[in-house]
Amino acid sequence: MRELLRPDDPLRLLPSPQGTHHPDRQVLQLGMRRQLDEGRSSSGVVVMATVEPSDRKGVWRARAYLGRDPAGRQLRPRTTITAPTRSRAQRLADAWEDKLRAEGRTDYRPRTVADAVEAWLQACELKGNEPRTMHSYRRLGDDIVDQLGARRVEQLTVADVEAFYRKLLARGTRVSHHHAALRGALNKAMQHGWVNRNVARLASRPTERTGKGAPPTVNEIEVLLKVARERSAMAERLIVVAIQTGMRRGELAAMRRSRFDVDRWTYTVDTAVWAVKASEGVHLKAPKTHTKRVIPLSDQTVAAILAQAAWLEDRARVVRAELAPDPFLWSPAPDCSVPPHPDWLTREFAAVRRAAGVSARFHDLRHAMATLMLDLGVPLPTVSERLGHANTHTTASIYAHGVSVRGREAAELLGRAFQPAGELEA
Fold it and tell me: Which residues pair with 260 in a beta bridge?
């Protein structure tokens, strides 16, 4: 006698077209004709993935059936499929189940938010994110796991997510970065078939002030330069180079004499300094977009770089040190063999801006350069190239305007926009 389906088997008999059950016409509900494990379920019938419509048009919920684990629990991963028709969705579900079987995906134990966060972090590492970036991501992940990690990922609700955001706000923490991290983790959960929807996308993210003000104006920059000159010649030179090149903090810290072309008045940016913790030292890496760029320089910037190089030679002579073959321009070491920690640049600027009474971050010098060049009519692609952005869309999303002038003219316009009182000191 043919073995009957067990009551808990994910298959059931449907009536034949004649309206009666027939032992040789066992039809599987919404399934693809496929065999489970070695080809058959324990009851000897053909196995199928299932597809059901969701509450969104063209989006379907699919479930595969991969047998049972050693404890007898059904292995039924889920996913969502976008398709115009049920038949198309069914074919896509078929391909998805084939992929799961080919990969030997048989571990479908109940997943938690902590599992989703770990999957997201692993994916970020595979993308080649820098160590400092990964350090920040792990800190965000730790916050999420502390509050939500034990929750079954399919049981996480919009209310849970919004309650998490309220806790972050209550302790004075920005929500936007945690929101992006949680959304990424739940996206990975969807890709793995652990959930059908991303509740972080549905949650209301509170409006928050970013704490970023407008970049310093030309008048404020002149005040900063005047105070910097009174503090130290190096501080003045650092601010001049920062504001007129628009380099990132890590790129400024990695400046070397060999990258400066005194004949062409250009500087080649091909290295940056990164450091996770001050106690762990500094490391060199490629710039943020992993591409080098050549920045045309104004006469003021050239004068500042030459003055800084001369000062380094004088310092080495005084302490009887031999300069490194390719010295770092802002190095704290007598021989200039190591770059400064990026935080040193921040501290130097912070001391100047406090004395000047100007509310600005070190990174705002970069924003000031971009804003000023766009206001002067420099085209967006030129500004984007000078900033080292991956594309003009990034620049446009931050600064929003720009029209016509080019390369060297842009550098000279920037140099003439403000004139520090007096000459740069050597």
Answer: 267
pLDDT digits (tens, 9 = 90+) for 339-350: 999 999 999 999
Amino acid, single-letter form, for residue 384: S
Burial environment of residue 212 by CB neighbours within 10 A (0 to 12, 13 to 18, 19 or more):
exposed
Give the pLDDT score at 212. Answer: 58
* Cα 147 to Cα 168: distance, rounded to the nearest angstrom: 10
Mean pLDDT of the chain: 81
Distance CA 46, CA 62 (A): 18
Element containing residue 313 per DSSP (H, E): helix 299-318
* Of 73, 67, 76, 63, residue with least CA distance to 32: 63
398 or 317, which is more confident: 317
Mean pLDDT, range 219-225, rounded to an integer? 92
Q: Which two tokens stand for residue 414?
A: 């920037």
- Residue 346 identity (one-letter amino acid): T
Spatial neighbors of 63 by CB under 8 A, at least 6 apart, are 49, 50, 76, 77, 78
Q: How far is CA 396 from the centre of its chain?
A: 18
C-beta neighbour count of 337 within 10 angstroms: 15
pLDDT over 90 at 319, yes or no: yes
First to last CA, the chain: 100
User: Nearest-CA neighbor of 388 among 286, 281, 314, 263?
Assistant: 286
Biggest CA–CA distance in the chain, Å, is 104
Q: Which residues contact 88 (CB under 8 A, 6 or more apart)?
A: none
Rounded Cα–Cα distance for residues 161 and 244 (Å) = 44
The helix (run of H) or strand (run of E) holding residue 77 is: none
Task: Provide the 10 A C-beta neighbour count for residue 243.
Answer: 26
Render the burial of 245-267: b for 16+ CB within 10 Å, e for the rest: bbbbbbbbbbbbbebbeeeebbb
Show contacts of 12-18: CB within 8 Å, 24+ apart: none
Residue 409 buriedness (CB in 10 A; 0-12 / 13-18 / 19+) = middle
Half-sphere exposure at residue 415, Cβ-oriented, CA atoms within 13 angstroms: 16
Specify whether the CB–CB gap between 316 and 323 falls below 8 A. Answer: yes
Q: What share of the chain is helix, strand, coil (3-state, %, to 5)?
A: 45, 10, 45
Query: Which DSSP state fits 215?
Result: P
pLDDT of 403 > 90? The answer is no
